[in-house]
Write a structure and sequence with these properties.
The complex is a heterodimer of chains A (112) and B (117).
Chain A (H helix, E strand, L loop, with lengths): L3 E3 L3 E5 L4 E3 L1 E3 L6 E7 L6 E6 L5 E3 L5 E5 L4 E6 L8 E8 L6 E2 L3 E6 L1
Parallel strand pairs in A: 2-12
Antiparallel strand pairs in A: 1-4, 3-9, 5-6, 5-10, 7-8, 8-9, 10-11, 10-12
Chain B lengths: L3 E4 L2 E4 L5 E7 L5 E8 L3 E8 L6 E2 L7 E3 L5 E6 L8 E8 L12 E2 L3 E5 L1
Parallel strand pairs in B: 2-11
Antiparallel strand pairs in B: 1-3, 3-8, 4-5, 4-9, 5-6, 7-8, 9-10, 9-11
Classes of the chains: A mainly beta (112), B mainly beta (117).
Chain lengths: 112, 117
């Protein structure tokens, strides 16, 4: 089964700072990768996804992620965060079945 | 389209009580899932279904049962609730493997916050 690890449990930063959240997965074959965001009190929403092709994926709200196969990584980035980016972020991976494995999540707090 | 809806939004149970959580989707998705979300543990799959009339165990199925009598509905049951089942429960759905590419993006409901005393 796929396992996903997220390096940071809680990240605190100021508005306009750059954000990078780490994600590593365990499966070595074909993998589909996702980043979901959960704003306070809301359900999970898809930020971006990688299935194949260009390893640099652009998502909504200015987020992007880079798939590095050799490092089993799919890190999420945003050049300049806003207060509204305060949320919990989940990395997820799907290998050879239809189930997703989620990381433990990273709470991001952006201070105005 | 309402997407994925869940009822109820909140519930408090006493140990030993039973309840059913309802998930409904109007996207004609084949696959449906039940997760629980606990602090520091992300989302863990409880049960899932790959089509009407089928169910299967996920990562943490003990203490839960599910049914998929209709394609659009996926019910999660707790027969005898325990404090360890205090959690936020999310339902999700996705197209099947025969769906349009790319498949398997999951769409989530708003969640049910369950407290077992």
């Amino acid at each position: 089964a796929q396992s996903v690890s997220q390096h940071n449990h809680h990240v605190i930063l100021s508005e306009a700072a750059s954000l990078e959240l780490g994600c590593n997965y365990s499966y070595g074959g074909t993998v589909n990768l996702f980043w979901y965001v959960q704003y306070p009190g809301q359900h999970l929403q898809l930020l971006l996804k990688y299935f194949s092709g260009d390893p640099l994926v652009k998502g909504i709200k200015g987020f992007e992620a880079e798939f590095i196969k050799s490092k089993f990584s799919f890190n999420l980035r945003k050049p300049s965060v806003q207060w509204s980016d305060t949320a919990e972020y989940f990395c997820a991976a799907r290998s050879n079945d239809y189930k997703l494995s989620f990381g433990a999540g990273t709470t991001v707090t952006v201070r105005a | 389209n309402a997407g994925v809806t869940q009822t109820p939004k909140f519930r408090v149970l006493k140990t030993g009580q039973s309840m059913t959580l309802l998930c409904a989707q109007d996207m004609n998705h084949e696959y449906m899932y039940w997760y629980r979300q606990d602090p520091g543990m992300g989302l863990r799959l409880i049960h899932y279904s790959v089509g009407e009339g089928t169910t299967a165990k996920g990562e943490v199925p003990d203490g839960y049962n599910v049914s998929r009598l209709k394609k659009q509905n996926f019910l999660l049951g707790l027969e005898s609730a325990a404090p360890s089942q205090t959690s936020v429960y999310f339902c999700a759905s996705s197209v099947g493997l025969a769906g349009p590419n790319p498949p398997n993006e999951q769409f989530f409901g708003p969640g049910t916050r369950l407290t077992v005393l």
